[in-house]
Amino acid sequence: MGEGQTRDVAARLHSASIRLLRALRREDDGSGLSAPRLSALSYVVVEGPVSLAELAEAEQVRPPTMSRIVDALVDRGLVTRVVEPRDRRSVRIMATAEGSQLLLGGGERRVHALIGRLHKLADSERRALARGVEILERVAR
Amino acid sequence: MGEGQTRDVAARLHSASIRLLRALRREDDGSGLSAPRLSALSYVVVEGPVSLAELAEAEQVRPPTMSRIVDALVDRGLVTRVVEPRDRRSVRIMATAEGSQLLLGGGERRVHALIGRLHKLADSERRALARGVEILERVAR
DNA sequence: GCACAATCATTAGCAATGCTAATTGGAGGC
DNA sequence: GCCTCCAATTAGCATTGCTAATGATTGTGC
User: A12 in contact with B at a CB cutoff of 8 Å?
Assistant: First the structure.
């Protein structure tokens, strides 16, 4: 594959990813949470108990910013902050049952909406896309 | 392809897209612009002169929010606001030479970084990914 | 032509999100 | 004990997001 073609794939992959996530973001409205809060909650639910520093790093935000977002999630009873006994400087942030339910029980609205879009494809296309996703996962690592 | 497999593709596509854009976002630091400003500038550069309403719609933001972002870009000399003669209520927002250069001349850092990642793939993988991107473009439409 | 509603953008004012710098409280070395 | 380092929070500021209200212009009905 030529250099120009690789550039073409990169540019199109970039803009298609942006468009996809933008389209799916519209599904977030029903959650009652802002984008940063929903994203942080999602990480906590999926990745289990995490420290504040790890969560901030994962969300590409500075610790003070994340500390406030966690405040808001704690206020709503979606996550808890527990002092780590082994090192009482740090905290374990974990989802409450309500927090998990809001995300998972909420049907994972974005994934659900995406499934709807995939249903419009031909089966062979879904298969080709599945293969592309496998490769994309390595690229995005 | 079964229902469960479709869900699997959807969930993985979703999270791979998030990870990809997060990784690429790190490239934005050198631009000296915040994410919303860079994204708005990018749309203006690529899509030519646009109205404020169109730009706000494209960026999924309300008009007052976009009006302020445009203020900041105008202050830095990256875009201009010109009253549309045919309908003097609306404005044409267009990139200045400096604005275009910042984005394009800057090498389109994100795309450039992505090309680097694609180079690590085998040629057959790049081809499969290219096919997947074509389908993704339809899904994200 | 002239009132009147509709439309595009901006202004005003507020909450949430992002940052850096400074502080608090605890861990660990010496 | 004291000193340094480290995780998290607090403080204070700029930016970004919203809705409601305002200005300016266009189009409509009569």
Answer: yes
